[in-house]
Amino acid sequence: MIRALSITKSIHDWLYSSMSENMAHLVEMVLIALVYLAIFSVAGLFLVLIERRVAAWFQLRIGPNRVGFQGLLQTMADALKLVSKELTGTERADKFLYNLAPYFVIITALMALAVIPFTQDFQAFDINIGILFLIAISSIGVIGILLGGWSSNNKFALIGAMRSGVQTISYELSIGLSLLTMILITGSLQLSQIVEVQKNGWLIVQGHIPAIIAFMIYMIAGTAETNRAPFDMAEAESELGAGFHTEYSGMKFAYFFLAEFINMFIIAAIATTVFFGAWLSPFGITESIPILGVFWFLAKAMVLVFLMMWFRWTFPRLRVDQLLTLEWKYLLPLNLMNIVIMALIVWQNLIIRF
Amino acid sequence: METKTVETNFKSEEYFINMGPQHPATHGVLRLLLTIDGEIIKKVEPDLGYIHRSIEKMCERDSYQQIVHLTDRMDYLSSNINNEAVCLAVENALQLEVPERVKVIRTIIGELTRISSHCLWWGVMGMDVGALTTYFYGFRDRELINDIFEETCGARLTMNYNVPGGLMFDIHPNFIKRVKDFIVHFKTKLPEYDRLLTGNVIFHKRTKGVGILSKEDAISFGASGPVGRASGYSCDVRKHHPYSALDKVTFNEALKTEGDTFARYLVRIQEMWESLSIIEQLIDNIPEGEYRVATNAVIKLPKGEYYQRVETARGELGVYIISTGTKNPYRLKFRSPGFSNLSLLNHIAVGGKIGDLVATMATLDLVIPDIDR
Questions:
Q1: Of B127, B137, B196, which has the smallest distance from its Cβ to A238's Cβ?
Q2: Residue B120 in contact with residue B139, Cβ under 8 Å?
């Protein structure tokens, strides 16, 4: 199940030659987890910085540019500050659940990261139900938000948590169905297979009209899934103060905060994998240098991340009932219809392949 | 054996929540006691008193020149118009005729104050419905007006530029040029406001048909300013009781009949255009002359009662002075626009969602120190 990274082939060989097989297996898993943890934290902090710079650009400001080159160390400094803060909580909170909630959010974000195919061999797990796994994992994250809001013994937090629950359950349907539309072309849930199919053209080109509709629905639902504006019901600053994380501070708050950004990256990464050919370069221009796949993957994901930031800093927030109306009355029927159209296209073999 | 049941006013599903005194949407220390059923507002009770400074009582202690600077601290976003209200009241009581130059400058600065107040409101309105970027756009243009004020009188917010009998100083030599530059700048920026927020579909959904106030209710609640005018109640003091140089200019009173949140939004946007047009008509024709007529060092109003109304950015501000002929007023009462506008919040917000309440409150444009003097 674990495919060793080609760069770390020698480490892999050395581990298996120096200790028993089970032991080596265990050590290797721990090593991979550590590498992903490092990627996770760096990516999260980097995304926070990008968000702040992009927001500043939209808002006629400069943004953080003092700590390190162009503010590169700013979020690092912020994280250090949050780590060094005393862990405080409310008196009457349900202590166990209150402390547990941030881990739910952060662990699910990390687990989802493990199946993302950054390039040919840079993928921790390539399970045959990759897409299903991603959707399932992303819905566990909402438990953390629900628990956090429920256990903090704060009415604002409770409203935020309930909104978040309603929202995530609704928009998961759209995420699942829009990805399912694309699965009709690939015929496989395995992420490496999905990328393989796209060597004949990215799926958004292969599936043309229904694929573009599916992509639009996916981006709307994905933004809602990550609780970001214009769907930031859960924390709706002007309505609920800070929403579900009102009572969290220090590192516990930082976990929620980082998880939001990692989730945003995951949504973009899934879209990159399913619609835009993951690590495949446009027109195969750099197929001979496999390591550039990472660059292409990140570049595509970053464009989508930028798109989500663009949403956030431009649109007003929807009201909670309008949010549900949008999903159940517009996106869901459109999505179901879209699947039928896609099925017809696959059946009649109207797919555009190069 | 007797059993006691505790009677409550609440149904079992309703719950009670404190919005404020520290809350991002109340823009100050306003406390709203909300009774909510799920997301739906059942009752809104504003609770005031967190920033009460006894300004009216302090006025009874101070001389008339000193009262002027206290009014800066009421509605700090239209401080110059507040100053003007007291000065006009005192001048009318003394039957003092101020020079034309003073009238024109007062009107220009008053309209600039209105634009700057509406700029801030527009930014905050966007922020309240979740579009944070508007805040910075509003502040960008507001800064330019504040810079003009700073050059004119040294203060950016609490100006204290008017005194009974005229102005504290003459305008700066750069004033006319800078105001003209601002008009050119702002005429390109107002359409940008429309592009960013007014035409947005989500914004329409959030504001249209929300917080509807009928014309009858607007009158009976004493609504004034853009809140009243959005309900079709023609209540612009500048039009009906012109003061300073407002009788020399032509402008349209921004009127809408829908009475919802979006209408109140449009009225304010329209008012910014009208204020620009008023300034344009006056800026080239500032008459030469004195900037102040001398008054006694100690102003004593003749015995009697005096009332002066002006149109601030929020609505009608009334200054009611009872004088017994001494150097202090016997009683001074401010009729603040925000207080009447806040009183109708419960009437129009009940039945809406929490998000509606926030959007509605944003278009009432509450400045808490104005309500809670």
A1: B127
A2: yes
Q: Torsions phi, psi of B51, nearest 5?
A: -130, 35
Contacts of A238 in chain B (CB under 8 A): 24-25, 127-130, 358
List of residues 6+ apart from B337 with CB closer than 8 A:
B75, B224, B225, B312, B314, B315, B316, B317, B370
pTM of the model: 0.86
Q: Rounded to whole angstroms, how far apart are CA atoms B373 and B369? A: 6
DSSP A39-59: HHHHHHHHHHHHHHHHHHHHT
Cβ–Cβ contact A239 with B under 8 A: yes
Q: Which residues in chain B have Cβ-Cβ distances shorter than 8 Å to A228?
A: none
Q: At a CB cut-off of 8 Å and minimum separation 6, what does B351 contact?
A: B40, B41
- Interface residue B351 vs chain A (CB under 8 A): no
Contact B133 A321 (CB under 8 A): no
DSSP, res A326? I
- Tell me the ipTM for this assembly: 0.82
The shortest CB-CB distance from A61 to any of B136, B203, B353 is to B136
Distance CA A289, CA B243 (A): 78
In chain B the domains, ranked by start, together with CATH numbers, are 54-371 (1.10.645.10)
Beta strand segments in B143-260, E: 162-163, 166-167
Tell me, what amino acid is at A275?
F
Nearest alpha-carbon partner for B357 in A18, A11, A159, A129: A159
In whole angstroms, how far apart are CA A248 and each of A238, A253, A257?
Answer: 18, 5, 11
| Gap between the Cα atoms of A87 and B302, Å rounded | 66
Q: Helices in A85-129 by DSSP H: which ranges?
A: 95-114
Q: How far is CA A336 from the centre of its chain?
A: 24
Residue pointed to by tokens 């592009």:
B195
Q: Does A159 touch chain B (CB under 8 A)?
A: yes
Q: Is the peptide bond before B173 cis (omega within 30 degrees of 0)?
A: no
| Yes or no, beta carbons of A315 and B353 under 8 Å apart | no
Interatomic CA distance for residues B187 and B164, integer angstroms:
34
Does A59 contact B206 at a Cβ distance shorter than 8 Å?
no
Residue B263 has pLDDT above 60, yes or no: yes
- By CB neighbour count within 10 A (0-12 exposed, 13-18 middle, 19+ buried), where does A12 fall? middle
| Bridging pattern class, strands B329-335 and B316-323 | antiparallel
pLDDT for res B12: 60
Report the Cα A175 to chain-centroid distance in Å.
12
Helix (H, G, I), strand (E, B) or coil at B176: helix
- Cα–Cα distance for residue pair A207/B29, rounded to 1 Å: 55
Q: Could you tell me which of B239, B318, B299 has the C-alpha nearest to residue B271?
A: B239
Chain A (13-72) residues lying within 8 Å, Cβ to Cβ, of chain B:
55, 58-61
pLDDT, tens digit (0-9, with 9 covering 90-100), for A128-179:
888 888 888 888 888 888 888 888 888 888 888 888 888 888 888 889 899 8
- CA atoms of A37 and A43, how far apart (whole Å): 10
Segments making up each domain of chain A, as ranges: 1-83, 85-347
Average pLDDT, integer, range B117-123: 91
| pLDDT class of A2 with cuts at 50, 70, 90 | very low
DSSP B76: G
Please report the pLDDT score of residue A340 as a whole number: 92
Averaged pLDDT for residues B131-154? 89
DSSP H helices in B194-260 = 201-207, 215-220, 225-230, 237-240
Question: For residue A351, which of A179, A205, A177, A214 has the smallest C-alpha distance?
Answer: A205
Would the CB atoms of B136 and A155 count as touching at under 8 Å? no
Distances (CA, A) of B42 to A251, B35, B47, B153: 37, 5, 16, 47
Q: Quick check: B306 contacting A, CB < 8 Å? A: no
- Cα(first)–Cα(last) distance of chain B, in Å? 54
Hey, what are A84's tokens? Answer: 């060094």
